[in-house]
Design a protein that fits this description.
Blueprint (H helix, E strand, L loop, with lengths): L1 H10 L5 E6 L11 E7 L5 E5 L12 E4 L3 H14 L3 E4 L6 E5 L4 E2 L6 E2 L1 H11 L12 H7 L8
The structure holds zinc ion (ZN).
Length: 154
């Protein structure tokens, strides 16, 4: 049991974003619902703040996985957009702090979230085909939380 807990804590650190695949509970959020891991309990269940407001834990028979596709990344980036700080927030693309009011920076062309001016410029070059697009799964707001970097609201 301790081994399961250790493995789950390592695989699903607090703050990482997960997608629900299957949960054996009639009150389970719909398949595909995303949430933020808050920890692993003494029984090895993954504690999740689901985006739909549910707080049901994922037990060892339930299936969750980390954000792994561009479509899933967009959902998480939109979620970050809702929770993005009003000032001095972190650019979800490069991870730099965006000084001043968040809305003075660039609205991303990929999701409803603000990015720093430099990333906004890079996105426009990507959209015109001048440069290759940085995969959404490589954005800091997706990669850092998945290895234990926290829920990434700042
Ligand atoms: Zn940036």
């Amino acid at each position: 049991m301790n081994e399961l807990i250790d493995t789950r804590k390592r695989d699903y650190p607090a703050g990482c974003r997960v997608v629900l695949d299957l949960m054996d509970d009639k009150y389970a959020p719909p398949q595909g619902t995303q949430g933020t891991v808050t920890g692993v309990d003494a029984r090895g269940s993954i504690m999740v703040d689901w985006d739909n407001g549910s707080g049901l834990n994922a037990t060892d028979i339930d299936r969750v996985y980390k954000i792994s596709t561009a479509d899933e990344a967009v959902i998480t980036l939109n979620w970050y957009g809702v929770h993005q700080r009003e000032t001095d927030s972190r650019c979800p693309r490069c991870g730099e702090i965006m000084l001043g009011p968040t809305t003075r920076h660039a609205l991303s062309r990929y999701a409803q979230v603000y990015v720093c001016d430099r990333c906004g410029m890079e996105e426009s070059l990507e959209k015109t085909g001048i440069t290759e697009a940085k995969p959404l799964t490589e954005w800091c707001a997706i990669k850092i939380p998945s290895v234990g970097g926290g829920a990434w609201r700042r």
